[in-house]
């Protein structure tokens, strides 16, 4: 197998969001790296790497660039190129690339595949049904509702395919659940991604995100994080791609960690190997921790966004060394060190997000940055010499400090200095950690 050379590396990061800015930022810190490219990148990434105007989903364009420019290592950020088989394509041309194969990436690309995998290999998850027709789906909702004695939310409706983190409807009642099914299966609200739906029982508890490195045989979890999906404070409003995250998540206790490794992480990697889809890359497990124990809500086949920002800010080991260990199937021999400090990321979003949003607003306060803070760009562009908003999620302002409380204070101090017209962001990122601290 081709091996990474010890130094002078040319690295290509695929993607253009906050996650990719954090990846470029971390990879640039490696003394082994000589040059970093990012495709397509954004205005913030352009300040520390060379951006290439190739979209993340353009696998053939990325292949041509990597081949012509003798790229030593490609690191894939978003799910789309993984689902399109970028890893298989690059490996067929003897190019080193970090991420799961197309077959392995189906663990995110199809929620039905993931649920069936968990059921087959006894990995804990919510009861579910998979449907392509409206009437059987509606009957299943009634069946789930009949099991509820408290009149609470009966279920969650998910588009089967990739929907940029937004294809999940947590129904407040039976009628909302049924309307979500009709909208996806008949109304085409999520396009091809919603042509099949997964309906799950609603789980009570607190969510936690566990990202883990895998070499296909071994799996090593990263430090825990907690995402905030809803647009408004106190988890109100529609789901987004993520409005902020912090690490560590106190709900993920020292007692819980080995249980998750034994019941979820290792069995998942073993299951993928047994299915002929060996999993090399980063596996994201979204978990619900509650009275029922730990259950898997979803898998992602890559670094999460925005969890990557606070998690990588705590990583002390050279990321390139870890990636090489994964590619060479010796992850069990690679020591990985983490900072004991806490990190908090607050996402600043454009007015109207997650619906239609404005673009082109000039961003102010990007410098100076307070000590302990990094501003990761997500949806930004350079126009007439000014950095402007270009996407729904615009910035991921991330702070590191001695504990969660002080990191929260620091990140919101920076948020008060940085922004743009119509900026919206949650003021309660990390609230659950503070509540646990008070209890």
Number of helices: 13
What is the correct CATH architecture of the largest domain?
Answer: 2-Layer Sandwich
Oligomeric composition of the shown chains: single chain
* Text of the CATH class of the largest domain: Alpha Beta
Number of domains: 3
The main pleated sheet reads as: 5 strands, parallel
Instruction: Please name the CATH topology of the largest domain.
Output: D-amino Acid Aminotransferase, Chain A, domain 1
Tell me the number of strands. Answer: 22
Q: What is the H level of CATH, i.e. the homologous superfamily of the largest domain?
A: ATP-grasp fold, B domain
% residues in beta strands: 25-35%
The percent range for helix content is 25-40%
Mean pLDDT: 93
Q: Give the overall shape.
A: globular
> Structural class of the helix and strand makeup?
alpha+beta
Radius of gyration: 21 Å
How would you describe what is shown here?
The protein starts with 8 loop residues before the first strand and ends with a helix. The chain has a 5-stranded parallel beta sheet. Helix 1 runs parallel beside helix 10 and helix 7 runs antiparallel to helix 8 (174-185). The chain has helices at 18-28, 59-68, 79-83, 86-92, 102-109, 111-120, 134-145, 174-185, 256-274, 308-314, 319-327, 404-417, 431-438; strands spanning 9-15, 33-40, 50-51, 73-76, 97-98, 128-131, 155-159, 168-170, 197-201, 206-215, 219-221, 226-227, 230-232, 236-239, 244-247, 280-290, 293-300, 342-349, 373-377, 380-383, 386-389, 393-401. By secondary structure, it is an alpha+beta fold. A hairpin with a 3-residue loop joins strand 10 and strand 11. The model has no long low-confidence stretch (mean pLDDT 93). It is built from 13 helices and 22 strands. It comes from Heliophilum fasciatum. One of its GO terms (biological process) is 'de novo' IMP biosynthetic process. Pfam families: GARS_A, GARS_C, GARS_N. Residues 115-328 form the ATP-grasp domain.
């Amino acid at each position: 197998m081709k091996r990474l050379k010890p130094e002078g590396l040319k690295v290509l990061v695929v993607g253009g969001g906050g996650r990719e800015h954090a990846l470029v930022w971390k990879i640039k810190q490696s003394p082994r790296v000589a040059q970093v490219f990012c495709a397509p990148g954004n205005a913030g990434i352009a300040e520390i790497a060379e951006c290439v105007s190739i979209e993340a989903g353009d696998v053939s364009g990325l292949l041509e660039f990597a081949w012509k420019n003798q790229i030593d290592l490609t690191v894939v950020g978003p799910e789309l190129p993984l689902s399109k088989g970028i890893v298989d394509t690059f490996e067929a041309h003897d190019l080193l690339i970090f991420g799961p194969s197309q077959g392995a990436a189906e663990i995110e690309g199809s929620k039905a595949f993931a649920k069936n995998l968990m059921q087959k290999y006894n990995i804990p998850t919510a009861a579910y049904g998979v449907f392509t027709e409206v009437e059987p789906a509606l009957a299943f909702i009634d069946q789930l509702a009949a099991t509820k004695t408290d009149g609470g939310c009966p279920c969650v409706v998910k588009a089967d395919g990739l929907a940029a983190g937004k294809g999940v409807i947590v129904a407040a009642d039976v009628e909302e659940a049924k309307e979500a099914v009709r909208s996806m299966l008949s109304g085409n609200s999520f396009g091809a991604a919603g042509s099949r739906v997964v309906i799950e029982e609603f789980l009570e508890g607190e969510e936690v995100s566990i990202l883990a490195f895998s070499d296909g045989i071994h799996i090593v979890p990263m430090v825990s994080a907690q995402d905030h999906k809803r647009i408004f404070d106190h988890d109100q409003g529609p789901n987004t791609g993520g409005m902020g995250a912090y690490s560590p998540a106190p709900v993920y206790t020292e007692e819980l960690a080995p249980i998750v490794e034994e019941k979820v992480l290792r069995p998942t990697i073993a299951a993928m190997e047994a299915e002929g889809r060996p999993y090399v890359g980063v596996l994201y497990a979204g978990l619900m921790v509650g009275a029922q124990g730990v259950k898997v809500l979803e898998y992602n086949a890559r670094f999460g966004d925005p969890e990557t920002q606070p998690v990588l800010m705590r990583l002390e080991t050279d990321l390139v060394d870890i990636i090489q260990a994964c590619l060479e199937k010796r992850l069990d021999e690679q020591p990985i060190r983490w900072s004991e400090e806490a990190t908090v990321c607050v996402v600043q979003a454009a007015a109207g997000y997650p619906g239609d949003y404005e673009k082109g607003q000039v961003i102010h306060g990007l410098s100076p940055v307070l000590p302990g803070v990094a501003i990761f760009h997500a949806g930004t562009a350079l126009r007439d010499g000014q950095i402007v908003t270009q996407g729904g999620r615009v910035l991921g302002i991330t702070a590191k400090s001695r504990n969660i409380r002080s990191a929260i204070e620091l990140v919101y101090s920076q948020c008060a200095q940085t922004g743009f017209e119509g900026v919206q962001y949650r003021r309660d990122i990390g609230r659950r950690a503070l509540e646990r601290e008070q209890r």
